[in-house]
Structures are given as structure tokens and as C-alpha cells.
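Tutorial, part two.
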Amino acid sequence: VCPTGALVVTAPADVRMGLASIDFGTCVRPSGEACDRCLAACPVPEDAIHEVDDLPEILDGCTGCGLCAVACPPDAIAVVPR
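Running the prediction step on this input gives:
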């Protein structure tokens, strides 16, 4: 949407703004509650997030876009700048 074309991103996976971090003390998944909003919101899930033992795990391919944090109902996800 940049009107001058100064901001160029060839692919979302090329972006490395930050890295998402999940606070499992706040996340509803460890208590057995069903939620997949973070996984569903991720634009590059194959590189950035997957499930391990029914819990979301952030991978190094996370771009730091923050869509998972916005989608998280209990605010259990924060993005840390790289």
C-alpha cells in the first residue's frame, strides 16, 4: 500500500521483524481448552508455527508480523523484536 513504492517485500517469509513468544501461563491450551486462533492467523504457518503435544510452538521462520498476537483471545502472545 506504499504510494511511493519505497517498501518492497517480495514474499512474507522474507520478513524478519521479530519473533513471537507464547506465555503458557496465560495460554488456554495447557488447561485443555480448544483454541487454534494463533495457528489460523499465521500467514506462513508451515515456517512459523506448529503444534507439539497439543500446544503451539513458534518456529524460527516466524516473521514477527504479530497476527497471532492480535488473534489470541487471552493475550498470551507477544512479539519480541529481532
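The mean pLDDT is 92. In part three we will examine how such features are distributed along the chain.
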